[in-house]
Design brief:
- By secondary structure, the protein is of the alpha/beta class.
- The chain has 2 domains: 160 residues, Lyase, Ornithine Decarboxylase, Chain A, domain 1 (Beta Barrel); 212 residues, TIM Barrel (Alpha-Beta Barrel), CATH 3.20.20.10.
- The chain has 12 helices and 20 strands.
- Strands 4, 13, 14, 15, 16, 17, 18, 19 and 20 form a 9-stranded mixed β-sheet that branches. It has an 8-stranded parallel beta barrel with strand order 5-6-7-8-9-10-11-12, surrounded by 6 helices. It has a 3-stranded antiparallel β-sheet with strand order 1-2-3.
- A hairpin with a 2-residue loop joins strand 1 and strand 2.
- The longest helix is centred in the middle third of the chain and has 19 residues.
- The radius of gyration is 23 Å and the shape is globular.
- The relative contact order is 0.16.
- The chain binds ligand LLP.
- Ligand LLP binds next to helix 10 and helix 11.
Length: 418
Protein backbone atom coordinates (compact mmCIF):
# COMPACT_ATOMS: atom_id res chain seq x y z
CA UNK A 1 0.00 0.00 0.00
CA UNK A 2 1.32 3.42 -0.98
CA UNK A 3 1.14 6.28 1.50
CA UNK A 4 0.57 8.92 -1.16
CA UNK A 5 -1.82 8.02 -3.96
CA UNK A 6 -3.94 9.77 -6.54
CA UNK A 7 -7.68 9.40 -6.47
CA UNK A 8 -8.77 10.95 -9.73
CA UNK A 9 -6.45 13.91 -10.07
CA UNK A 10 -6.22 14.59 -6.32
CA UNK A 11 -3.25 13.46 -4.27
CA UNK A 12 -4.13 11.81 -0.98
CA UNK A 13 -2.05 11.04 2.06
CA UNK A 14 -3.85 7.96 3.38
CA UNK A 15 -7.49 9.15 3.34
CA UNK A 16 -6.88 12.89 3.44
CA UNK A 17 -6.69 15.10 0.39
CA UNK A 18 -3.38 16.94 0.30
CA UNK A 19 -4.80 20.19 -1.06
CA UNK A 20 -7.13 20.25 1.97
CA UNK A 21 -4.09 19.98 4.25
CA UNK A 22 -2.40 22.83 2.36
CA UNK A 23 -5.51 24.94 2.76
CA UNK A 24 -5.91 24.20 6.46
CA UNK A 25 -2.30 24.62 7.58
CA UNK A 26 -0.95 26.85 4.83
CA UNK A 27 2.17 26.14 2.81
CA UNK A 28 4.91 25.08 3.03
CA UNK A 29 3.96 22.16 5.23
CA UNK A 30 5.48 18.72 5.84
CA UNK A 31 2.94 15.90 5.70
CA UNK A 32 3.65 12.40 7.00
CA UNK A 33 1.82 9.10 6.73
CA UNK A 34 1.55 7.17 9.98
CA UNK A 35 0.91 3.90 8.15
CA UNK A 36 3.98 4.33 5.99
CA UNK A 37 6.26 4.88 8.98
CA UNK A 38 5.03 1.82 10.84
CA UNK A 39 4.93 -0.37 7.72
CA UNK A 40 8.50 0.45 6.65
CA UNK A 41 9.68 -0.20 10.19
CA UNK A 42 7.94 -3.58 10.38
CA UNK A 43 9.08 -4.62 6.91
CA UNK A 44 12.71 -4.01 7.78
CA UNK A 45 12.29 -5.79 11.09
CA UNK A 46 10.75 -8.73 9.22
CA UNK A 47 13.73 -9.01 6.85
CA UNK A 48 15.95 -9.50 9.89
CA UNK A 49 13.53 -11.64 11.88
CA UNK A 50 15.62 -14.80 11.60
CA UNK A 51 18.35 -13.24 13.75
CA UNK A 52 17.88 -11.68 17.19
CA UNK A 53 17.57 -7.99 16.37
CA UNK A 54 16.86 -4.49 17.61
CA UNK A 55 15.88 -1.79 15.13
CA UNK A 56 17.13 1.58 16.36
CA UNK A 57 15.49 4.34 14.32
CA UNK A 58 17.97 7.05 13.45
CA UNK A 59 16.57 10.12 15.19
CA UNK A 60 18.39 12.67 13.00
CA UNK A 61 16.32 11.61 10.00
CA UNK A 62 13.02 13.02 11.20
CA UNK A 63 12.94 13.72 14.88
CA UNK A 64 9.47 14.98 15.75
CA UNK A 65 8.42 13.81 19.22
CA UNK A 66 5.24 12.15 17.94
CA UNK A 67 7.27 10.13 15.47
CA UNK A 68 9.68 9.00 18.18
CA UNK A 69 6.77 7.99 20.39
CA UNK A 70 5.20 6.05 17.54
CA UNK A 71 8.48 4.17 16.86
CA UNK A 72 8.90 3.43 20.55
CA UNK A 73 5.37 2.06 20.76
CA UNK A 74 6.11 -0.49 18.04
CA UNK A 75 9.23 -1.69 19.82
CA UNK A 76 11.92 0.46 18.24
CA UNK A 77 15.10 1.67 19.84
CA UNK A 78 16.97 4.78 18.73
CA UNK A 79 20.26 5.78 17.16
CA UNK A 80 21.16 9.19 18.58
CA UNK A 81 24.08 11.52 17.90
CA UNK A 82 23.70 14.33 20.41
CA UNK A 83 22.37 15.04 23.85
CA UNK A 84 19.60 16.99 22.15
CA UNK A 85 18.47 13.82 20.41
CA UNK A 86 18.69 11.89 23.67
CA UNK A 87 16.51 14.48 25.36
CA UNK A 88 14.04 14.22 22.51
CA UNK A 89 13.74 10.46 23.00
CA UNK A 90 13.40 10.97 26.73
CA UNK A 91 10.77 13.69 26.31
CA UNK A 92 8.77 11.56 23.88
CA UNK A 93 8.99 8.20 25.61
CA UNK A 94 10.58 8.51 29.05
CA UNK A 95 12.69 5.53 28.08
CA UNK A 96 16.23 5.68 26.72
CA UNK A 97 17.17 2.10 27.50
CA UNK A 98 17.27 1.19 23.81
CA UNK A 99 19.40 4.14 22.67
CA UNK A 100 22.78 3.80 21.04
CA UNK A 101 24.83 6.99 20.96
CA UNK A 102 27.12 7.58 17.94
CA UNK A 103 29.04 10.65 16.73
CA UNK A 104 32.71 11.57 16.54
CA UNK A 105 32.60 14.51 18.92
CA UNK A 106 30.56 13.61 21.97
CA UNK A 107 31.35 16.00 24.79
CA UNK A 108 32.01 15.01 28.38
CA UNK A 109 28.66 16.38 29.58
CA UNK A 110 26.86 14.46 26.84
CA UNK A 111 28.50 11.18 27.81
CA UNK A 112 27.75 11.85 31.47
CA UNK A 113 24.09 12.71 30.98
CA UNK A 114 23.57 9.70 28.71
CA UNK A 115 25.15 7.45 31.32
CA UNK A 116 23.03 8.95 34.08
CA UNK A 117 19.87 8.48 32.07
CA UNK A 118 20.81 4.84 31.41
CA UNK A 119 21.24 4.42 27.66
CA UNK A 120 21.91 1.00 26.18
CA UNK A 121 25.34 1.61 24.69
CA UNK A 122 27.82 4.14 23.33
CA UNK A 123 29.25 3.91 19.83
CA UNK A 124 32.79 5.05 20.43
CA UNK A 125 34.69 6.56 17.52
CA UNK A 126 38.22 7.19 18.86
CA UNK A 127 40.74 6.16 21.51
CA UNK A 128 40.44 9.50 23.32
CA UNK A 129 36.67 9.14 23.44
CA UNK A 130 37.08 5.69 24.98
CA UNK A 131 39.24 7.18 27.70
CA UNK A 132 36.76 10.00 28.26
CA UNK A 133 33.91 7.50 28.57
CA UNK A 134 35.85 5.53 31.17
CA UNK A 135 36.48 8.74 33.10
CA UNK A 136 32.79 9.74 33.03
CA UNK A 137 31.69 6.26 34.10
CA UNK A 138 34.20 6.27 36.94
CA UNK A 139 32.85 9.57 38.25
CA UNK A 140 29.36 8.07 38.35
CA UNK A 141 30.65 4.72 39.58
CA UNK A 142 28.76 3.02 36.75
CA UNK A 143 29.76 0.62 33.98
CA UNK A 144 29.49 2.08 30.48
CA UNK A 145 28.62 -0.36 27.75
CA UNK A 146 30.16 0.46 24.38
CA UNK A 147 30.75 -0.64 20.82
CA UNK A 148 33.65 0.59 18.77
CA UNK A 149 32.63 2.05 15.45
CA UNK A 150 34.82 0.38 12.87
CA UNK A 151 35.71 2.05 9.63
CA UNK A 152 35.77 -1.02 7.37
CA UNK A 153 37.12 0.93 4.40
CA UNK A 154 34.49 -0.04 1.83
CA UNK A 155 33.01 2.10 -0.89
CA UNK A 156 29.23 2.30 -0.45
CA UNK A 157 28.89 3.76 -3.98
CA UNK A 158 26.75 6.67 -2.94
CA UNK A 159 27.08 10.47 -2.91
CA UNK A 160 30.46 11.51 -1.50
CA UNK A 161 28.85 13.64 1.20
CA UNK A 162 26.96 10.67 2.62
CA UNK A 163 29.69 8.05 2.36
CA UNK A 164 31.05 7.27 5.82
CA UNK A 165 32.90 3.96 5.76
CA UNK A 166 35.96 4.78 3.67
CA UNK A 167 39.42 5.37 5.09
CA UNK A 168 39.36 9.05 4.18
CA UNK A 169 36.13 9.64 6.14
CA UNK A 170 36.30 10.98 9.68
CA UNK A 171 34.14 8.21 11.09
CA UNK A 172 35.15 5.17 13.10
CA UNK A 173 38.41 3.46 13.90
CA UNK A 174 40.45 1.21 11.66
CA UNK A 175 40.34 -2.52 12.26
CA UNK A 176 43.85 -3.00 13.62
CA UNK A 177 43.64 -0.23 16.17
CA UNK A 178 40.13 -1.36 17.11
CA UNK A 179 41.40 -4.80 18.07
CA UNK A 180 44.03 -3.23 20.30
CA UNK A 181 41.48 -0.89 21.86
CA UNK A 182 39.07 -3.71 22.64
CA UNK A 183 41.88 -5.51 24.44
CA UNK A 184 42.91 -2.34 26.24
CA UNK A 185 39.31 -1.75 27.34
CA UNK A 186 39.33 -5.05 29.26
CA UNK A 187 41.64 -3.31 31.73
CA UNK A 188 39.50 -0.21 31.96
CA UNK A 189 37.44 -0.80 35.04
CA UNK A 190 34.35 1.17 34.13
CA UNK A 191 33.93 -0.01 30.54
CA UNK A 192 32.13 -3.01 29.15
CA UNK A 193 32.82 -3.97 25.52
CA UNK A 194 29.37 -5.03 24.52
CA UNK A 195 29.18 -4.52 20.78
CA UNK A 196 30.78 -3.67 17.49
CA UNK A 197 29.47 -1.08 15.06
CA UNK A 198 29.68 0.02 11.44
CA UNK A 199 27.77 2.51 9.35
CA UNK A 200 29.14 2.74 5.84
CA UNK A 201 26.98 5.43 4.29
CA UNK A 202 23.50 6.42 3.28
CA UNK A 203 21.17 5.90 0.29
CA UNK A 204 22.97 2.65 -0.53
CA UNK A 205 21.16 0.73 -3.26
CA UNK A 206 23.18 -2.46 -3.64
CA UNK A 207 23.82 -5.15 -1.07
CA UNK A 208 27.47 -5.66 -2.12
CA UNK A 209 29.05 -2.95 0.10
CA UNK A 210 27.22 -4.41 3.11
CA UNK A 211 28.39 -7.90 2.26
CA UNK A 212 31.96 -6.70 1.83
CA UNK A 213 31.88 -4.77 5.09
CA UNK A 214 30.19 -7.54 7.09
CA UNK A 215 32.79 -10.03 5.86
CA UNK A 216 35.59 -7.75 7.05
CA UNK A 217 33.83 -7.20 10.36
CA UNK A 218 33.25 -10.94 10.83
CA UNK A 219 36.97 -11.51 10.77
CA UNK A 220 37.45 -8.96 13.56
CA UNK A 221 34.52 -10.44 15.50
CA UNK A 222 36.11 -13.88 15.46
CA UNK A 223 39.50 -12.43 16.41
CA UNK A 224 37.80 -10.78 19.39
CA UNK A 225 36.16 -14.03 20.42
CA UNK A 226 39.51 -15.77 20.27
CA UNK A 227 41.02 -13.01 22.37
CA UNK A 228 38.27 -13.42 24.98
CA UNK A 229 36.56 -10.13 24.36
CA UNK A 230 32.97 -11.23 24.79
CA UNK A 231 30.88 -8.89 22.68
CA UNK A 232 27.14 -9.46 22.31
CA UNK A 233 25.85 -7.33 19.49
CA UNK A 234 26.80 -6.29 15.97
CA UNK A 235 25.34 -2.95 14.89
CA UNK A 236 25.35 -2.79 11.10
CA UNK A 237 24.19 0.84 10.97
CA UNK A 238 21.66 2.25 8.58
CA UNK A 239 22.03 3.30 4.99
CA UNK A 240 19.35 1.39 3.12
CA UNK A 241 18.40 3.44 0.06
CA UNK A 242 14.93 4.35 -1.20
CA UNK A 243 13.30 5.27 -4.50
CA UNK A 244 13.51 8.99 -5.18
CA UNK A 245 13.35 8.64 -8.95
CA UNK A 246 14.19 5.34 -10.60
CA UNK A 247 16.54 3.72 -8.08
CA UNK A 248 16.23 0.01 -7.37
CA UNK A 249 16.72 -0.24 -3.64
CA UNK A 250 17.94 -3.27 -1.75
CA UNK A 251 15.05 -5.69 -1.37
CA UNK A 252 14.14 -7.98 1.47
CA UNK A 253 15.21 -10.96 -0.70
CA UNK A 254 18.75 -9.54 -1.06
CA UNK A 255 18.98 -9.09 2.68
CA UNK A 256 17.72 -12.57 3.44
CA UNK A 257 19.85 -14.27 0.81
CA UNK A 258 23.11 -12.36 1.00
CA UNK A 259 23.37 -10.76 4.40
CA UNK A 260 21.49 -12.86 6.92
CA UNK A 261 23.68 -15.99 6.56
CA UNK A 262 26.79 -13.90 7.27
CA UNK A 263 25.13 -12.24 10.24
CA UNK A 264 23.90 -15.57 11.61
CA UNK A 265 27.45 -16.88 11.52
CA UNK A 266 28.58 -14.18 13.92
CA UNK A 267 26.20 -15.52 16.57
CA UNK A 268 25.57 -11.95 17.72
CA UNK A 269 22.43 -9.91 18.25
CA UNK A 270 22.01 -7.61 15.25
CA UNK A 271 21.29 -3.91 15.67
CA UNK A 272 20.13 -1.74 12.79
CA UNK A 273 20.02 2.04 12.56
CA UNK A 274 17.70 2.83 9.67
CA UNK A 275 16.56 6.37 9.04
CA UNK A 276 15.83 7.13 5.40
CA UNK A 277 14.28 3.73 4.66
CA UNK A 278 11.69 4.38 7.38
CA UNK A 279 11.02 8.10 6.95
CA UNK A 280 11.99 8.98 3.36
CA UNK A 281 8.89 7.92 1.50
CA UNK A 282 6.66 8.52 4.51
CA UNK A 283 6.70 12.29 4.05
CA UNK A 284 6.15 15.03 1.49
CA UNK A 285 6.55 18.78 1.45
CA UNK A 286 3.63 20.79 0.09
CA UNK A 287 4.49 24.15 -1.40
CA UNK A 288 2.63 26.78 -3.39
CA UNK A 289 3.63 28.53 -6.60
CA UNK A 290 4.00 32.19 -5.67
CA UNK A 291 5.00 33.54 -9.07
CA UNK A 292 5.80 32.30 -12.53
CA UNK A 293 8.58 34.18 -14.27
CA UNK A 294 10.01 33.58 -17.73
CA UNK A 295 13.14 34.95 -19.31
CA UNK A 296 14.58 34.29 -22.74
CA UNK A 297 16.11 30.97 -21.69
CA UNK A 298 14.05 29.67 -18.80
CA UNK A 299 10.81 29.36 -16.93
CA UNK A 300 11.01 29.79 -13.20
CA UNK A 301 8.34 28.54 -10.85
CA UNK A 302 8.99 30.51 -7.69
CA UNK A 303 7.55 28.57 -4.76
CA UNK A 304 7.11 29.35 -1.09
CA UNK A 305 9.47 26.57 0.12
CA UNK A 306 13.17 27.27 -0.03
CA UNK A 307 16.47 25.61 0.71
CA UNK A 308 15.91 26.47 4.37
CA UNK A 309 12.88 24.15 4.33
CA UNK A 310 14.38 21.36 2.20
CA UNK A 311 18.13 21.55 1.82
CA UNK A 312 18.82 18.29 0.00
CA UNK A 313 18.60 19.56 -3.62
CA UNK A 314 20.92 22.50 -2.89
CA UNK A 315 23.37 20.56 -0.74
CA UNK A 316 23.62 17.24 -2.58
CA UNK A 317 21.98 18.03 -5.93
CA UNK A 318 19.45 15.50 -4.69
CA UNK A 319 16.51 14.62 -6.89
CA UNK A 320 12.99 14.85 -5.48
CA UNK A 321 9.98 14.14 -7.66
CA UNK A 322 7.63 17.10 -7.85
CA UNK A 323 3.95 16.70 -8.61
CA UNK A 324 1.49 19.41 -9.40
CA UNK A 325 -1.56 18.49 -7.37
CA UNK A 326 -3.97 21.28 -8.10
CA UNK A 327 -7.02 19.89 -9.92
CA UNK A 328 -6.78 19.66 -13.68
CA UNK A 329 -2.97 19.67 -13.73
CA UNK A 330 -1.56 18.73 -17.09
CA UNK A 331 -4.55 19.69 -19.16
CA UNK A 332 -2.62 22.49 -20.81
CA UNK A 333 0.47 20.44 -21.68
CA UNK A 334 3.85 20.67 -20.02
CA UNK A 335 6.81 23.01 -19.74
CA UNK A 336 10.27 22.84 -18.23
CA UNK A 337 10.81 24.82 -15.05
CA UNK A 338 13.46 25.62 -12.52
CA UNK A 339 11.48 25.25 -9.31
CA UNK A 340 13.13 27.79 -7.03
CA UNK A 341 12.59 29.13 -3.54
CA UNK A 342 12.47 32.67 -2.18
CA UNK A 343 15.94 32.56 -0.56
CA UNK A 344 18.61 34.96 -1.76
CA UNK A 345 20.97 32.31 -3.11
CA UNK A 346 21.32 31.00 -6.66
CA UNK A 347 21.62 27.54 -5.14
CA UNK A 348 18.13 27.80 -3.68
CA UNK A 349 16.14 25.35 -5.76
CA UNK A 350 14.02 22.25 -5.41
CA UNK A 351 14.44 21.11 -9.02
CA UNK A 352 16.17 22.33 -12.15
CA UNK A 353 14.91 22.10 -15.71
CA UNK A 354 12.06 19.87 -14.62
CA UNK A 355 9.21 18.99 -16.94
CA UNK A 356 5.94 19.79 -15.16
CA UNK A 357 2.36 20.42 -16.20
CA UNK A 358 2.00 24.07 -17.18
CA UNK A 359 1.93 25.87 -13.84
CA UNK A 360 -0.01 28.87 -12.64
CA UNK A 361 0.33 31.18 -9.71
CA UNK A 362 -1.35 29.53 -6.71
CA UNK A 363 -0.84 25.91 -7.81
CA UNK A 364 0.12 23.47 -5.09
CA UNK A 365 3.15 21.25 -5.67
CA UNK A 366 4.05 18.16 -3.72
CA UNK A 367 7.75 17.51 -3.25
CA UNK A 368 7.95 13.76 -2.83
CA UNK A 369 10.21 11.56 -0.67
CA UNK A 370 10.86 14.44 1.70
CA UNK A 371 10.32 12.61 5.00
CA UNK A 372 14.00 11.91 5.63
CA UNK A 373 16.44 14.77 6.27
CA UNK A 374 13.72 17.22 5.25
CA UNK A 375 12.37 19.01 8.28
CA UNK A 376 15.29 17.87 10.42
CA UNK A 377 17.76 19.77 8.23
CA UNK A 378 15.60 22.84 7.90
CA UNK A 379 16.81 26.18 9.23
CA UNK A 380 15.83 29.77 9.82
CA UNK A 381 18.08 31.15 7.08
CA UNK A 382 16.82 34.45 5.69
CA UNK A 383 14.88 34.76 8.97
CA UNK A 384 12.20 32.41 7.77
CA UNK A 385 10.15 30.55 10.33
CA UNK A 386 10.23 26.77 10.17
CA UNK A 387 7.13 25.15 8.75
CA UNK A 388 4.49 23.01 10.47
CA UNK A 389 4.50 19.21 10.45
CA UNK A 390 1.29 17.24 10.08
CA UNK A 391 0.73 13.50 10.60
CA UNK A 392 -2.06 11.67 8.82
CA UNK A 393 -3.50 8.45 10.15
CA UNK A 394 -6.43 7.15 8.09
CA UNK A 395 -8.80 10.08 7.77
CA UNK A 396 -7.40 11.86 10.84
CA UNK A 397 -5.06 14.85 10.65
CA UNK A 398 -2.78 15.70 13.55
CA UNK A 399 -0.69 18.84 13.82
CA UNK A 400 2.54 17.48 15.33
CA UNK A 401 4.53 20.70 15.12
CA UNK A 402 3.20 24.20 14.95
CA UNK A 403 4.51 26.66 12.46
CA UNK A 404 7.13 28.83 14.11
CA UNK A 405 6.35 32.47 14.68
CA UNK A 406 8.42 35.62 14.89
CA UNK A 407 8.92 35.23 18.65
CA UNK A 408 10.46 31.79 18.07
CA UNK A 409 12.75 33.34 15.50
CA UNK A 410 14.27 35.93 17.83
CA UNK A 411 14.14 33.85 21.01
CA UNK A 412 17.29 34.36 23.07
CA UNK A 413 18.47 37.40 21.12
CA UNK A 414 19.22 40.59 22.97
CA UNK A 415 19.33 44.16 21.79
CA UNK A 416 22.54 45.40 23.36
CA UNK A 417 23.36 49.09 23.21
CA UNK A 418 27.09 49.41 22.37
N1 LIG B 1 23.59 5.55 11.84
C1 LIG B 1 24.53 6.50 11.78
C2 LIG B 1 25.70 6.40 12.67
C3 LIG B 1 24.41 7.55 10.86
O1 LIG B 1 25.36 8.48 10.78
C4 LIG B 1 23.27 7.62 10.02
C5 LIG B 1 23.11 8.71 9.07
C6 LIG B 1 22.28 6.61 10.14
C7 LIG B 1 22.49 5.59 11.05
C8 LIG B 1 21.03 6.60 9.30
O2 LIG B 1 21.32 6.42 7.95
P1 LIG B 1 20.15 6.19 6.88
O3 LIG B 1 19.49 4.87 7.20
O4 LIG B 1 19.19 7.31 6.98
O5 LIG B 1 20.84 6.18 5.57
N2 LIG B 1 21.58 14.32 5.23
C9 LIG B 1 21.89 13.28 4.28
C10 LIG B 1 22.05 11.93 4.97
C11 LIG B 1 23.08 11.94 6.06
C12 LIG B 1 23.17 10.64 6.80
C13 LIG B 1 23.87 10.81 8.09
N3 LIG B 1 23.98 9.64 8.89
C14 LIG B 1 20.81 13.24 3.22
O6 LIG B 1 19.91 14.09 3.26
O7 LIG B 1 20.87 12.44 2.29
Amino acid sequence: MQAFTFKGDSLYCEDVKCTDIAEKYGTPVYVYSHGSFTRSFSELQKSFSSVPNLVCYSVKTCSNLSILKMIHDIGGGFDIVSIGELRRVFAATGDVSKCVFAGVGKREYELTEALEKGIYSFTVESEQELEMLNKCAKKLDKKASFALRINPDVDPKTHKYISTGKKENKFGIDMKLAFELYKKSCDMEFLLAEGIHMHIGSQITTIDPYVEAVKKMSKLISDLKNANVPIEYFDIGGGFGIIYNDEKPIGSDDIIKELIPLLKDTGLKILLEPGRSIAGNSGILLTKVVYIKNNSVKNFAIVDAGMNDLLRPSLYEAYHKILSITGGAGQKGSENYDVVGPICESGDYLALDRSLPVLQQGDILSVMSAGAYGFSMSSNYNSRTRVPEVMIKGNQTYLIREKENFDDLIKGEKIVKF
